[in-house]
Design a protein that fits this description.
mainly alpha, 5 helices
Length: 86
């Protein structure tokens, strides 16, 4: 599998994160997808993200919670990618 390590300052770069997430999906590496998405979400304002994506803050915080299963809806992933493309 491809190495998806990012430095903390790179996790705020939407274009870079979007590319890494797409690569992880293409590789079928859902664990890396989850880790990179969670790391990116930790760099952004959850309130602002909720406003721009239309997702509830609870949904965003659930994605960050490693004790919960990671199985987001396609509509959630699509909303996050739309934000990353902005």
């Amino acid at each position: 599998m491809k190495d998806f390590d990012l430095y903390p300052q790179e996790l705020a770069d939407k274009k870079l994160v979007r590319g890494v997430l797409l690569d992880a999906l293409a590789e079928g590496d859902l664990e890396s997808f989850r880790e990179v998405l969670r790391a990116h979400l930790n760099t952004v304002s959850k309130l602002a993200l909720a406003r721009t994506t239309g997702l509830g803050r609870r949904t965003i915080y659930d994605l960050l919670d490693s004790s919960k299963s990671f199985d987001p809806r396609l509509s959630t992933v699509a909303a996050l990618f739309k934000d990353l493309a902005a």
